[in-house]
């Protein structure tokens, strides 16, 4: 079973923890549906699409019949045909009809524009409308374009507020296409859900009721996510009938480094080689074997390091060979990026290190090998990245290289969690009051909100509107709620409340971007390394009074890691389950935290350089938390002496935060935790895990729903880790506010077993 891909040298096969063979699949083509006009099918045929696959035809027909539809299949399965066919057929048959296409990135919208233009259909007039569109073009798009390709931010800031000048387009609106809709998760997803509801309401004003067609990467329960996103019932098509080559998928755990005797490693636990160094070696091995390989690396700096290290070792072996490896920079022009992709497809380049699958062109598929440096956070992203490998009739390889953290470690030792598990549901919460209230203000500024509009915005809309009226933000009249300010509400879809902090380059005064206040203390504190569009900056000063962070361009070989101290108060309990000595709860909490210092660590080795103090004020976050308590008696019976309770709970908290992304589409940085041997509000030993966004983003709620699965995986990863006292692969956390102290690894397994035993009992 464990046959290493040929380019992986045998001397390191101890790192190979699993090999999975994904069999090739033959395609299932069907005739063009009868409703597709011949000029449309022949335009696609001229582009090499002889016939649709079964899933494309089925989803397209569903949308043609007016059913809100989501197609959720793998990379390269041709999801775009599912929305192009019904939208274009409609536009060809009705010259007043229009369609709106939304993508999370400008690059995707640009790709879509090229496809539509290449079809050369008469009278379709596609155009992009985004931050790069100049004034004259914008006027033309409003007056004449029939397919408008844009993003949710532009719909929110540019189109909906000026709906009167879009009257022609909105009156004809028949299809709204939401591409890559799995990208809309967390707080951003909650905002986008309301932008789509606002679009529905404004369209209705122009007497149109468009059909929504959503395209998603493979995702858990796409019908439910699509329904939550649009607010209307959505039918899902998930069976992929496109062909693909077989892929050998290897899981790889970097080896332990020889024991070190430096003082830097205080607890003397063995350290693993970094995922970046391993990826660079594997990339070099692949390239010297003539294998065309794409390496996915989480950060851009990491991608450049991987390319540089691979080039260096290749040049040492065969001078000049290093030039066949490149890094793919998001800051490059689209033409340059496409040229790099083309060079990889035709073999001029053999290795490319890239950050994000979304930035890559859709044509870059069929590679010989894909290396994934660190689990990308969700199964959906993993399969999206892996989907770049494999051509019909040829073997291809994919290797996931684990980073030194609990989730990656769990996955490379539990292949069933990767290969036998449905992908995560996309989690977001349109009911989040911190999203709902500003979105209702935006809606009211577009058109007064009438009682008839309330169902669109959900059951909590009316109390939220009344609260806004009571606060003097909206005005309530018999006919509804009105926005009476002259300026429009200032709402950032990607922020999370509070005015943004401007990031400004000191030398030039240039505004690089903004960071919401919620994360400014963590991201742009004085001394922080801040990445903006692929360029690295170091923060000279965070000036909170003026909401500005002054930065200079610098590319240091360290990263920065903030430390904070946190306090938590329970405000209200929403739901609770008491099972024997264990109680599991979900509710509203107030978290007070203060970023007090940060560590600088070497990028490649992770070695701590130093810790620098910060002088930042406290911040207060109202959010949603899941928490569990155990009784002191049960801890006694489990054989944990009371002096060790803090370490047991703290270790269990860290590991459970590390494993939460297994069940919800969040990053461990989206969540926080707190554990204590006696919490003031519960009076008991307690572990809290909370959403890091005001009002919550749905993560804690999801954890409460599937607590047994979540905590079960948590116990497994801690129990199976081969370290003695706890390491980054199990209970240590990179964002611990207490310097990972105290941590009791063995006691964490005991306390988690206690909780799981209780939860497996039938409720009394
Ligand atoms: Zn460990
Ligand atoms: Zn901690």
Structure description:
The protein contains 24 helices and 27 strands. With 764 residues, the chain is of the alpha/beta class. The strands form 5 sheets. It has a 7-stranded mixed beta sheet, sandwiched between helices. A 7-stranded parallel beta sheet has the order 4-5-3-6-7-2-8, sandwiched between helices. Helix 13 links the parallel strand 13 (369-373) and strand 14 (396-401). The longest helix is centred in the N-terminal third of the chain and has 20 residues, at 186-205. The protein is globular, with a radius of gyration of 27 Å. It starts with 15 loop residues before the first strand and ends with a helix. It binds zinc ion (2 copies).
Round the Cα radius of gyration to an integer and report it: 27 Å
Main pleated-sheet profile: 7 strands, mixed
Strand order of the largest sheet: 1-9-14-13-10-12-11
The parts where pLDDT drops under 50 for at least 5 residues are 261-267
- Total strand segments: 27
Fraction in helix: 25-40%
- The best one-word shape is globular
What structural class do you assign from the helix and strand content? alpha/beta
% residues in beta strands:
15-25%
Mean pLDDT: 87
Bound molecules: zinc ion
Number of continuous helical runs: 24
Q: Between the first and last Cα atoms, what is the distance in angstroms?
A: 46 Å
Protein name: DEAD/DEAH box helicase
Domain Helicase ATP-binding: 60-237
Organism: Dactylosporangium fulvum
GO molecular function: helicase activity
């Amino acid at each position: 079973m464990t046959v290493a891909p040929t380019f992986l040298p045998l001397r390191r096969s101890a790192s190979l923890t699993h090999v999975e063979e994904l069999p090739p699949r033959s395609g299932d083509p069907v005739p063009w549906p009868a409703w597709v006009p011949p000029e449309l099918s022949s335009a696609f045929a001229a582009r090499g699409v002889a016939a649709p696959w079964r899933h494309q035809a089925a989803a397209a027909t569903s949308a043609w019949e007016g059913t809100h539809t989501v197609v959720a299949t793998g990379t390269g399965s041709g999801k775009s045909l599912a929305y192009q066919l019904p939208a274009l057929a409609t536009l060809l048959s009705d010259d007043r009809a229009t369609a709106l296409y939304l993508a999370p990135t400008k690059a995707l919208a640009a790709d879509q524009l090229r496809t539509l233009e290449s079809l050369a259909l008469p009278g379709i007039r596609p155009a992009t409308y985004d931050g790069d569109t100049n004034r004259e073009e914008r006027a033309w798009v409003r007056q004449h374009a029939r397919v408008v390709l844009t993003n949710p931010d532009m719909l929110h800031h540019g189109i909906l507020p000026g709906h009167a000048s879009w009257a022609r387009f909105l009156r004809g609106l028949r299809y709204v296409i939401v591409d890559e809709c799995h990208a809309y998760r967390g707080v951003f997803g909650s905002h986008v859900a309301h932008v789509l509801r606002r679009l529905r309401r404004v369209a209705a004003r122009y007497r149109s009721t468009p059909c929504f067609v959503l395209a998603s990467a493979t995702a858990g329960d796409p019908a439910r996510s699509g329904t939550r996103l649009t607010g209307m019932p959505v039918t899902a098509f998930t069976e992929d009938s496109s062909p693909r080559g077989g892929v050998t998928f290897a899981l790889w755990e970097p080896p332990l480094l020889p024991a070190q005797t430096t003082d830097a490693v205080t607890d003397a636990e063995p350290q693993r080689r970094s995922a970046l160094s391993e990826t660079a070696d594997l990339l070099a091995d692949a390239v010297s074997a003539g294998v065309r390989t794409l390496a996915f690396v989480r950060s851009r700096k990491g991608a450049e390091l991987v390319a540089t290290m691979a080039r260096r070792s290749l040049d040492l072996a065969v001078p000049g060979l290093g030039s066949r490896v490149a890094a793919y920079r998001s800051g490059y022009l689209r033409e340059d990026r496409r040229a790099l992709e083309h060079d990889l497809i035709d073999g001029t380049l053999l290795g490319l290190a890239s950050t994000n699958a979304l930035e890559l062109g859709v044509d870059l598929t069929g590679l010989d090998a894909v290396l994934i440096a660190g689990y990308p956070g969700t199964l959906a992203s993993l399969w999206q990245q892996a989907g770049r490998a494999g051509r019909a009739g040829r073997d291809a390889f994919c290797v996931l290289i684990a980073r030194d953290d609990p989730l990656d470690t769990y996955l490379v030792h539990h292949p069933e969690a990767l290969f036998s598990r449905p992908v995560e549901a996309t989690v977001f919460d349109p009911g989040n009051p911190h999203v709902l209230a500003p979105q209702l203000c935006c809606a009211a500024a577009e058109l007064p909100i009438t009682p008839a509009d309330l169902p669109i915005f959900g059951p909590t809309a009316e109390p939220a509107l009344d609260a806004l009226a009571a606060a003097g933000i909206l005005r309530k009249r018999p006919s509804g709620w009105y926005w009476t300010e002259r300026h429009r509400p200032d709402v950032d879809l990607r922020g999370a409340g509070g005015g943004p902090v401007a990031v400004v380059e000191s030398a030039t005064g240039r505004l690089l971007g903004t960071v919401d206040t919620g994360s400014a203390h963590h991201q742009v504190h004085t001394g922080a390394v801040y990445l903006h569009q692929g360029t690295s900056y170091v923060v000279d000063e965070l000036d909170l009074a003026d909401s500005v962070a002054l930065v200079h361009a610098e590319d240091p070989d360290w990263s920065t890691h903030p430390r904070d101290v946190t306090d938590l108060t329970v405000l209200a309990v929403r739901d609770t389950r008491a099972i024997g000595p264990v109680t599991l709860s979900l509710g509203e909490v107030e978290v007070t935290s203060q970023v007090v210092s940060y560590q600088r660590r070497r990028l490649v080795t992770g070695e701590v350089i130093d810790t620098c103090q910060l002088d930042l004020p406290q911040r207060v976050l109202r959010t949603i938390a899941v928490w569990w308590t155990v009784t002191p008696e049960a801890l006694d019976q489990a054989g944990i002496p009371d002096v060790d309770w803090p370490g047991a709970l703290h270790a269990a908290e860290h590991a459970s935060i590390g494993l939460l992304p297994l069940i919800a589409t969040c990053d461990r940085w989206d969540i926080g935790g707190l554990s204590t041997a006696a919490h003031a509000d519960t009076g008991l030993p307690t572990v809290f895990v909370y959403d890091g966004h005001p009002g919550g983003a749905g993560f804690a709620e999801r954890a409460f729903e599937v607590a047994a699965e979540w905590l079960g995986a948590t116990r497994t990863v801690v129990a199976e880790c081969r370290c003695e006292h706890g390491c980054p692969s199990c209970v240590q956390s990179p964002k611990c506010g207490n310097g990972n102290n105290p941590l009791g690894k063995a006691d964490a397994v005991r306390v988690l077993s206690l909780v799981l035993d209780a939860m497996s009992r039938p409720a009394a």
